[in-house]
Design goal:
161 residues; alpha+beta; 4 helices
């Protein structure tokens, strides 16, 4: 029996669609990737050749309005591409960007209680999107909630125009 290690050890984003990232967004991206690689559950539900069960490398991209996870093994050999429609996420991505913009502005001038209220709204949107991501991936890739949260942050980064 082949040993499995269902986790991500590398994740790269397709930066070709990103025109510009603010320092705040770049920091969010770095933190999300760091946290994701430190602790995650990423278990594709496909039975790969030779029983390969991880660890995995992922190239995350948006193509033709869909989110694509190009999954590879540790030797960068392609295993599969999992594709999800982005339609269920569009509203949440827009709302998340709007509340993040408010949050970054509030940090400079708002009271702590105002910042906390905005941050609660931001976390609520993030949690909802993370749950949907987990549900939509369930039959293709099993991920835990924290992995879904960090992946949603990266999905948002891919949508910056």
């Amino acid at each position: 029996m082949t040993k499995t290690d269902p986790r991500l050890i590398a994740i790269d984003l397709d930066d070709r669609t990103i025109i510009w990232r603010s320092a705040d967004i770049e920091q969010e991206r770095r933190i999300a990737i760091y946290d994701l690689l430190e602790e995650n559950t990423f278990e594709p539900q496909t039975a790969y050749e030779n029983g390969y069960g991880g660890p995995f490398k992922v190239y995350l991209r948006v193509t033709d309005g869909r989110l694509a996870f190009d999954i590879a093994d540790t030797q960068d050999e392609a295993l599969e591409t999992v594709v999800l429609a982005l339609t269920p996420f569009r509203r949440l991505i827009r709302e998340y960007f709007a509340v993040c913009d408010s949050y970054f502005k509030a940090i400079k001038t708002a009271t702590p209680s105002q910042i906390e209220a905005i941050d609660m709204g931001r976390r609520g949107i993030h949690n909802e999107a993370s749950e949907i991501l987990q549900e939509r991936l369930a039959e293709k890739i099993r991920i835990d909630f924290q992995t879904a949260r960090r992946l949603f942050t990266l999905v948002c980064v891919l949508h910056i125009r």
